[in-house]
């Protein structure tokens, strides 16, 4: 195994971008809320405006 220098580490390509991680997290939160809304629906209060 070779130890990389700092310059070699900066040239490494690949991995996951921050925005892909944010998108995956947002999708997970949306789906969790959707499933929660289906499983535990809240009835409307029916108040007057």
Overview in brief:
The protein has helices at residues 6-10, 18-39.
Description:
The structure is a single chain. This protein is mostly helical and 49 residues long. Helices cover 55% and strands 0% of the residues. It has helices at 6-10, 18-39. The longest helix is centred in the middle third of the chain and has 22 residues, at 18-39. The radius of gyration is 23 Å and the shape is rod-shaped. The model has no long low-confidence stretch (mean pLDDT 89).
User: What fraction of the residues are assigned to beta strands by DSSP?
Assistant: under 5%
The termini sit apart by 71 Å
Estimated structural class? mainly alpha
Query: What is the N-to-C order of secondary-structure elements (H for helix, E for strand)?
Result: HH
Mean pLDDT: 89
Estimated helix fraction:
55-70%
Residue ranges: pLDDT <50 for 5 or more in a row?
none
Overall 3D shape: rod-shaped
Task: Supply Rg.
Answer: 23 Å
Write the layout of secondary structure elements.
Blueprint: H1 6-10, H2 18-39
Main traits of this protein?
2 helices; rod-shaped; 49 residues; mainly alpha
């Amino acid at each position: 195994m070779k130890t990389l220098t700092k310059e070699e580490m900066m040239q490494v390509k690949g991995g996951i971008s921050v925005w892909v991680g944010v998108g995956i997290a947002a999708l997970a939160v949306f789906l969790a809320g959707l499933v929660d809304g289906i499983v535990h629906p809240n009835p409307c209060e029916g108040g007057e405006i």
